[in-house]
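The data layer described in this paper is built around a simple, fixed record for each protein. Such a record has a labelled line for the sequence and another for the backbone structure tokens. For reference, a complete record is included directly beneath this paragraph.
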Amino acid sequence: MVDHQNSSPHHSESDEARFIQALSSLSPKPKARRTDTLYSLVHRCFDDLKSAKKRGYSYEELATLFYTQLGRTITPGTLRKYMNRAAKAPGIELEADPNEAACESTASVIPSSQAPQSMPLPKHLGPKPVPLPRSTLYVRDPRAQASEDEFENL
């Protein structure tokens, strides 16, 4: 621990005591949740998204709907992950952002007779790299290890 008592002649011990008292009297500050995230939007619309999935719509079609209706890009994999996460944490209430479009029932947005027009989603920058073959680990013969240990301290 560093002693800062002599490092700054401008501050007295009473200043330091007031500072420490001010720090200890601070009330807990609640952590504000971000409400402008895609996850919060998926969480708020979870019931409607789930019913659309039950009616046969794919994650890709729902992701396309995010883009066409809200102008927000989400990949089908991310949408699936967020829906799984929202299904496991239904008790968390996320407030709607006033600038964000309210989640309406997808029954009024998605006609049940036809799927939304498929729109190409952003592709990854390149093909997946081919994984290199992994070398096999072999167990060493304990006799060889013992003979090496004999000469280690010479």
Observations:
- The chain has a mean pLDDT of 73.
- The first helix runs from residue 13 to 24.
- The chain has seven helices and no strands.
- The CA atoms of residues 54 and 90 lie 18 Å apart.
